[in-house]
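Example 3.2
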Amino acid sequence: MKKQPPAASTDPTETLAAIGPVARSSVVDAVSDRLRNEILAGRIAAGSRLPSERELSLALGVNRLTLRAALARLEAMGLVSTRHGSGTEVVSWRDRAGLDALPMVMSSIDRGEPAWLELLTSLLEVRRILVSEAVALAAERHSEEDLVEMQRVAAEQVRNLPDPLAFARGDLAMQRVIVRAARNVGLELILNSFARFPDEQPQAVAELYDRREESVPFYDVLVELVRGGDGESARRTLRAAFDAMDSDWLSRHGHTVACKELGKGRTKAKDEEGNPGSLGTAPKASARKSKAR
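Structure, written as tokens:
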């Protein structure tokens, strides 16, 4: 486990001391990644003014054109703000960054740090909201072609079982079909924020999809919920199922505190929906089909 990072500094001189030269390959990528990680991990605090271009380029071992290109990327991400004559200031990513910053922050801190678990829990909650709402809308707006495409993607997941990353990409493909069936562009753009997650967090993805065989029937349930046409019932069913799945996963992987917090919502969901199943195990398809009809 890595040591906890030192307290963030707002002093440009201390910032220079914390930054070393980067490798010469993919220099712009390396510079933007280095600064991004320092900012997202909190080692360069929001409100800090970065050193001058000359000082910063020397500290990183790159020329000013490379540095400017890297800073432009960070500004596009909502991590820094550059003003002519005032230099570059680090801004609060919580105030300025988009949802795609979530996996980037996770990759910037150690998995043993409490903040990593907090971010993972946030990710699970966003997934729960996104999928539940998308299926609810898809139930009311889908076409027969959407159902055919959902069934095709569901069938492909059986072939993806040996590879957790392929299975995760297939899961995203299913979510994309559902979101498109929901006829909501905003949900499509939110889903895009997670498209790189299997590549950026392969170890976390492998852990999240640790019971793939038991997850396969869940895709048939999704198809039936959409086919049933009852958006409110689909929404309640999936929120209950995801509450149980996420709570069981957290408990199984030793995250008892987060599991207890999530369990509060799970108890309420059980009262409303009955036993929604465990992580990776779909709610019984027959019961869900009857509820969706």
